[in-house]
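Hey all, sorry for the wall of text incoming. These are the two entities for the joint prediction.
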Amino acid sequence: MADFTSGFWDYYIAAITLLGIIGCGILLWAQSKAKVGKRSDINVDTTGHVWDQDLTELNTPMPRWWMWLFYITIVFALAYLVLYPGLGSYAGKLGWSSTGNYQTELKQAEADYGPLFAQYQQQDLKAVAADPKARAIGERLFLTYCAQCHGSDARGNKGFPNLTDKDWLFGGAPETIKQTILHGRIGAMPPMGAAVGSEKDIENVAHYVLSLSGSTSDPIKAVFGKSKFGACMACHGADAKGNPALGAPNLTDKIWLFGGSADTIMETIRNGRTATMPAFGDFLGDAKVHVLAAYIWSLSNDVNAPVVTAATEPVVAPTAEAAK
Amino acid sequence: MSAPEEQVIKMYAAREEIYPRETAGRYARLRWLFVWLTQLAFYGTPWLQWNDRQALLFDLTTRKFYIFGMVLWPQDFIYLAVLLIISAYLLFLATAVAGRVWCGFTCPQTVYTEIFLWIERKIEGKRSARMLLDRQPWSVGKLSKKTAKHLAWGAVALWTGFTFVGYFTPIRDLLVEVQTFDFGPWEWFWVLFYAFATYGNAGWMREQVCKYMCPYARFQSSMFDKDTLIITYDTERGEPRGPRNKHAVLQTGSCIDCSMCVQVCPTGIDIRNGLQYECIGCAACVDACNGVMDKIGEPRGLIRYSTDRALAEHLSPAEIRRRTWRPRVRIYTAVLCLIVAGAGAALYLRVPLKMDVIRDRGAMGREVEDGMIENVYRLQIMNTTESAHTYRITVGGIDTLALVTPAIVRMEATETRAVPIRLRTAHGAAHQGSNKIEVSLTSVDDPALHVTETAVFIVPR
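and here's what came out:
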């Protein structure tokens, strides 16, 4: 995309560049010799500069190769401008670009590390999760790409789910986790204030929801809230256990994505919630996502692999070779 | 004056070839000693082994710098800076005491020029033979001599380039690759570039490097004073110069104007004109003049190491030595000793383990079961030793602060890894807002491997 709509500036910059180079050449040529008055009184070369009537400057010539070096830089500059982009919008004979350079490096990295990931891609996700080397790679990928939202310990944050528990908004099967990473998810709860009713009704529903998981709640408000819960059943189900197909959370456990106080739940009902998990498929590619999904699944499942040694404390698996 | 006649002068001039005459004597021997010492070190060191790896290897791809028993990382860059500072102060000190001794005896430009000149002498002959050869028209004989010289120079240069790259890529692998010409593009570039630089600088550029390119040559004069040892011509004793005449008794000085001192000079100056910026202090003229003085039965030392003050005030060598220990030299020595001692202590006390504590920025802190407050951190751990270690993580700074995640971490040799940890404290043990805490890492097998870093624990308001 051009910064300017007119081609004028391209020519303007190209002209300045070329004139500058040619100017340097002329300056160099003009300064390599000088016409001076011949002096009969002294027998040495001077530059012809005279100060205070009789002060002259000795001519101490620079080595000639030095001058040739200057000419070589001019030739270099011209050759560079032919080969590489530099003259306005001219792209250069080599067609080099920083984006192209980046793509080449990406391809090189793909060629270097591709086979490692391809090998895991062939395996079942649970088999990958059982491989400590793969988990170590997965951990590095997670710390690089996922930890910003889900935290270094994968336990999430307000609005970002905890990945180490058994509670999954869209389903916790390894293949489902992979789909979530590949294509992303949008978890949307519409504002339900109007559907539920008055502010009093909203408070009652909130207390009913709290009572479902046995959390502290006002039993009387909960009884009144139950009658208004019908508005929520379409997504959360009659038993309030949620619906992974819609990403509707289970309301009968004590896990709250946005907070579990009565006030927060009321706010959720009133205004709704929207949370987005971006799609990483295009960015990371299927093979890396495969390893990543296996690692994330391993956080909340027994991979039946960790070798329990005699050591009393668990040892974090080594990763040096794996992540190279 | 009548109308001035005009002439054209050139601001650039072709170099006049210098044919240094070979010398023999104390300083020539000293220079050859340094040629051997420096080149044995340069060509030999990459071949030394240390525990199954190259003893000295600067691995740029993995950014690990192996120096015998030590592995330096980019984080240890300060040691390179200190090394350069020490080198600079050594140069200052040496220059203040004895002038440009570095230039004359150990500088690679001098050393390689000496080697290349030796090859030139072996193939083209002595000074007069070389001058004659260059004046002759091209012939088979001249062509074969010149070809042989450049081939020999090229061989030395290529080996130098190969050795140079051998400091950055394991040289034994490089030796296998060279047999099949299996270098990578960058290996080719650096071998050839360094070889070209050696060939060009020592074969063609020679004294021009010192005269027109080297910055040290120029600023060393600012370290000179009246008590700095320099190569001097004793004008009082030498002048008036002139040839000896057996028949007439003439009032002449010791200098017989044989021009030997000019012929041996690698930078083509006449030392009898006094101290000049071109003089690299190689003392070749001292050797040459002493030889001549021996022949004509005069005492040595018409050209000698002396100082400005000694010449003016006729000081004895003992007095010159006494004046060496002057404030400038004392200050250089003191600074040098301080830096060397500091760097030595820092290297000795260096813990080959590094850790950064990075608090997760996504969350301020969370309340978990039983009202405990939890913060999440990432420990960026670098085991900079060449053996695997098991470390224990400990935390402190707040009462009841405890680690929830495993406390034991195993790191492979020279491994870098991020280890997520969770810390918990009881509600009320820390005040709201940020609290200073300490995270320590101690090797289970070697308690000397220990680092402590501070971090912040946040209790949400």
